[in-house]
Amino acid sequence: MEFYEYQAMNTTIQVAAEGSRDKLVPGFQEVRRFTEDCEARFSRFSEDSELCQLNRRAGSWFQASPEMMDLMGNALELYWLTDGLFDPSILEALQQAGYDRSMDEIKVLGQLPSAIVHQPAASHFGQTRLDPTGSVIYLPADVQVDFGGIAKGWIAEKAAQLLSDYTPACAVSIGGDMFFRGTPNGETGWQVSLEDPLDEQNVLTILNPGPGALATSSVTRRRWSQGNQVRHHIIDPRTGTSAEVEWLSVTAGALKATTAEALAKAILIGGSELGLQLAEQVPGLWFIAVHPDGTLSGTKNSMEFVYEPV
Amino acid sequence: MRKLAKTFLHLWISLVSVAAFATGWFFLAHAEKPAPLVDPQVQVSSSSQTLLEPIPTINDLLKDQSPTAINLQSSNFSFPRLRTRGS
Questions:
Q1: How far apart are CA A289 and CA A291, in angstroms?
Q2: Are B57 and A200 a contacting pair at CB < 8 A?
Q3: How does pLDDT run across B33-43, given as a tens digit for each residue?
Q4: CATH value of A191-310 in 3.40.50.1980, 3.30.450.40, 3.10.520.10, 3.40.50.2300
Q5: Class of the domain covering A1-44+148-184
Q6: What's the distance, CA A227 to chain centroid?
Q7: Nearest chain B residue (CA) to A274
Q8: Could you tell me if the ipTM is greater than 0.90?
Q9: Distance in Å, alpha carbon of A310 to nearest chain B alpha carbon
């Protein structure tokens, strides 16, 4: 197994593939080029990105790339599937909660001043319209989109697709949002450490997923203080503030990376009842939740994906 | 006479339109509402926790192994390089 790691999208990108290094190097380079192109396209921190252009054109039709059309289509589908609990248009709420600059800058600033009360927008993401024939998107006038994790998942899946031209088995992980194609030689799945949300040096268990996607959503990675409140970046679209959750993190496996990422977040916000409902409804979905005391629980089928050392 | 018939026709069409709208509105307003996927008022009760299965941690799994396997942990066992965590 060959590994290739680099930094992009403010996170670590890990690529793993079966095969000889000299045959894989062009594939690794292609993956890197692709992820860098996608970062330039989907970043909300770069004024020239296609995402920022789309946000600026909210209220009118926007000529979009096939990549933007595909990702937006996925996002809309998941918005409706979760009844709005997955919502990529919570950018304003995130900024009001104090996440209006990079996490590194927030850490330097320390406690942020109290926020003004969140005013929900008159429009919502569900009113976004796509016209695939003209490749155009209509974003409602007061809706601003930040794809965040769902873009990472989408990019990981497409990158793994590219790499599969060079290898029968590969994995691409973008900050822990992963997509697997094939399985390593002689193995039934890929071994993945599930990090303790409270201590990244600590591993809670080892997962063994097969081909498909894996994503984790957590309330412990990006936290800060605002007034006398502790905030995190998982916003509950129903309240417009950091979600009150029963778990520290949710790791979800699914057939598609966008599904794993969006549903991990929605289940973390919505809790066990929603999680079980979605697990029945969405083929291939399973999830494991980390409780505040470090214990784990999950769907019945999630046991199949826990690696048992022999 | 023709004018009277025309007025009567206009009146008739208006009345029928209003009646049809009111009937439609009445039936739609009283129809059974589709159940939402997520009820925003729903509070996750602690009993719903029991709906999920307990999943063993790596420590639980290694405790269950034979002494040989525990030796494996101390000598060769290493955690996979791929790691998942919240983004």
A1: 6
A2: no
A3: 654 433 343 33
A4: 3.10.520.10
A5: alpha beta
A6: 28
A7: B38
A8: no
A9: 6
